[in-house]
Design brief:
Layout lengths: L17 H4 L26 H10 L9 H18 L15 E4 L5 E2 H7 L1 H6 L11 H11 L5 E9 L3 E11 L3 E3 L5 E3 L4 E12 L5 E7 L3 H9 L4
Length: 232
């Protein structure tokens, strides 16, 4: 996740930097190449900080060209589009005519709906301390504030290859920032590491464009630590 407060809204075009791609660390972990006329939603994303955290704290290093590395790159590229490009017709990682995503077998969300509400709201929903009724911008800002070093993501294991790709993932970040719950109360983190584990089944076509995502994890495992692991 590129941190919201580090984006410059005046920079609406251009390719990702080498730092955002991961090249200073000797690995290409995100090779997204936007269409020439794409407009970045909040400004060109900058993944330099979260990449640093990713390389320092990941638990898996997959061989280049392995199925795990291919899946990791695809999901990281999907994150670029779903968070940072508002126009679904500029998306390249998804077949928007078929795309749908669902959390824990719930009601599926199509491409335009995801673009409107944002991936966080789609993939968390309603919990005791979080509401998905907030804006796309508010959710991105809130989690950027919660994880000042970035909220990184990695593939742990791939169980099956295309066209139905099933895999286990880890989302991780140090809770050293401030999370605002749905009642407006702020919770200052104590710096502990969040390790969120989940599963995903992705249907892809012959071009590896995503047609559907079925994500499985407990949203309370993400939100509850942000309101309980507080600094003294």
């Amino acid at each position: 996740m590129a941190l919201a407060h580090e984006l410059d809204p005046s920079v609406t075009t251009g390719a990702l930097s080498e730092e955002s791609r991961g090249l200073p660390y000797g690995e290409l972990i995100r090779d997204y190449d936007p269409m020439p006329d794409v407009k970045w939603r909040f400004g060109k994303p900058n993944y330099a900080r979260v990449n640093k955290f990713y390389f320092e704290n990941r638990v898996m290093k997959h061989p280049e060209g392995s199925l795990e590395s291919v899946v990791s790159n695809l999901v990281k590229n999907w994150e670029v589009e779903s968070h940072h490009i508002a126009d679904v017709h500029s998306w390249k990682t998804m077949d928007i005519s078929k795309f749908q995503a669902a959390l824990n077998g719930g009601l599926p969300c199509n491409a335009q709906r995801m673009a409107d509400i944002g991936p966080y709201n789609m993939l968390i929903g309603e919990t005791q301390s979080y509401t998905s009724k907030g804006t796309f911008e508010a959710s991105n800002s809130n989690f950027g504030s919660s994880f000042p070093e970035g909220f990184a993501w990695e593939v742990l294991e791939v169980f099956s290859g295309p066209p139905k790709v099933s895999f286990k993932w880890r989302h991780f970040g140090r809770m050293s920032g401030t999370f605002t719950d749905k009642n407006g109360k702020q919770h200052k983190g104590n710096g502990e590491m969040m390790n969120l584990i989940g599963l995903c089944i992705a249907q892809v076509n012959a071009e590896l464009k995503i047609e559907s995502l079925d994500i499985y994890y407990n949203p309370d495992d993400m939100i509850n630590p942000l309101v309980t692991n507080q600094a003294p």
